[in-house]
Amino acid sequence: MENKEQYNAFSLIQFLWRWKWWLLAICLATMIISLGCSMLIKPRFKSTATIYAPRTNSTAKILLNEENYNERLDMKAYAIEEETEQMMQLLNAQEIKDSLISKYDLATYYDINTSSKGWKTKLNKVLANNITIKRTEYGAITISVSDEDPQMACNMTQDILRLLDTVKNRAEHERAAASYYALVDQLDSIDREIARVDDTIKLCMEHGVYDVEKQSERMMQQYAIAVAGGNTAAINRIKEEMKNMAEWGPKLDAAQNLQYFFIQYQSLCKQKMMDAKLDMSNRIPVKFVVDNPAPADKKYYPKKSIIMLVSTFCVLLLSILVLLIFEKINEPTDRKVETVDQ
User: Where are the domains of the chain?
Assistant: First the structure.
């Protein structure tokens, strides 16, 4: 078996040596042609930005949560997987792509015929191929834009960072505004309820009921004194007061309890409303920028050396295969020629 393997290896070496000049010429020709073709390819430049997502962008939670520290509400805290995935989804939003298309007239820039069928799909596909958004092993997000113009790539990357703030703030501001106006309506309802309760308390006071507990205690003392002294007029008067207290006292207690509840609820709504109003005016950046994009001074594509090596290696293998087939086909003829010579 070893002799056979050595024989096959030796035969391969003999074969390569026999065709060495042909293979060398093919390799040189391939290198020259691939170099020429790579020079015809327009160079592309890449601009990259690196960002981190924050844990939260709620201004109210960040600024008004000093007493009870929570790492999640720390404005300096980096995001975990959930927030990073959400930010990547925002970066892929169609609103950002549409803004870039409109600002730079990318249909014309990429030479796409807007009168053809499916031109928008084609344009979005080209844009998606030129924009790369991925997560790094350290939890950051890289945004890369490639283009034939390095300044264009840099400008588009900067605009994506800017538009990320716009899209995220818009979504959060809409939610904060909806919450704010819902709380305004709720606060109006609470004010009406408090006014109704105040009217009930005022009506009870007009009937002489101010403080059920103290007034009841005083009546019982006076009643005991009147009974002990045999003062019939005082006893009858106090009984009338007790009847009045029995009628309006429970109403006053219920109204005062409701008043306390509504005042507490009113205070909570005002607090939440102010928080929502603060979030509506939020201008805190929605990301931590680690690396800002800059115009590239060196192209990233095409790599001439890689193109030459790969193309030369492939052509060399193909040439060896073709020559092996060629020799195999012509092998019987060669043997016949050797037999006649003998």
Answer: 1-41+302-342, 178-280
